[in-house]
Amino acid sequence: MKRIGILNQPISSVIAGLGHTDTLVVADAGLPIPQETQRIDLALAEGIPGFLDTLRVVLMEMQVERAIVAEEMLETSPGVYEAIKGLLGDVPIEAVPHAAFKERTRSARAVIRTGEFTPYANVILVAGVVF
Question: Residue 20 catalytic?
């Protein structure tokens, strides 16, 4: 049994397999997930697990060079946006229209679906390199 880090096997495996510029999405319960994109469904009930808790754990293991959110998040869920900024520190965040955000999920290595019910609580993480 793994002692530290992410215990969820599909998430751990996806992160371990990411290359530079590959993307991973952490999403709320309502984001449509394209058929061709791997779905890692963690949603148990409303708010369980939460988006920010899930993102916090993913960031413990993933090297991120930039992130992408929907523009709509900034107005509709500004608290989530501020929390993402806090978790990412100096990592740049790009905001795109929600339709463009959904289109970009098609090329993600996986979408991690949480139980979050906050509108637009979604982020695309772009893998960086550790060297």
Answer: yes
